[in-house]
Write the structure tokens for this entry.
Amino acid sequence: MTWIVFALFFWITMWILNVRLANAGRNRIINLIVPALFGISLLVLWEGFVRGLNISPILLPTPSAIAIRFSTSIPILWVDFVQTFVKGALSGYVIGCSAAFLTAIAVDKSSFLKRGLLPVGNFVAALPIIGMAPILVMWFGFDWHSKSAVVVVMVFFPMLINTVAGLSAKDTIQNDLMQTYGASYWQSLFKLSLPAAMPFIFNGLKICTTLALIGAIVSEFFGSPTRGMGFRISTEVGRLSLDMVWAEITVAALAGSTFYGMMALIEKGITFWHPSQRS
């Protein structure tokens, strides 16, 4: 009970402090402090309730136990990170998004592809990963190549649909002006269509960052060498070692958040002119 009272007191204190900081004004330091304090208060609340209610670590380990397991398992976590994220997710992300971008340019140029391929893309994007992953694992083997193939399938059509929508978002008056000046298709593409499509393209890239990591992890449940986040999660659950499972989840969350943040920073640098990026 003492732990629960302490956790609630800490939570209320942090809540009041966060409200005051949020109302104090907006700057970069406060924008970092507010979510950090909120996250810390959630961890303290988690720790207090697990300890106060004597919840079994098999059901829910404490954040301190997860941190200890994380610090003592860094070599294993690093090997799993390289296998799942670097080899599987990142390679599939680059291949899938690049192929989708080039296909979107072809679709934008051809009304036949726009009418024929996009409905198929919507259909394939709705297919469950649970059904596709075992097939691709059997086709490409149990190593990271099959995980990369799953990621390619997952990111291709979301990226394609966003890019095609972006290429179609150019202003009609601007397009007519380019035709009046006698601009070719490629000149209009690079000087008008692509700049106008950049917010849509980066929206697709940011969506695909999370899809890539999810696809790589889930596909490892259906066959993997003795390494990888998905492999480790499935095996440690069978051993009732939930602290290691949460350590892997922490690695996945950090990797996914960092990847998304990098795309957001690149977007801010390239599309600084867009109203969504203005202060």
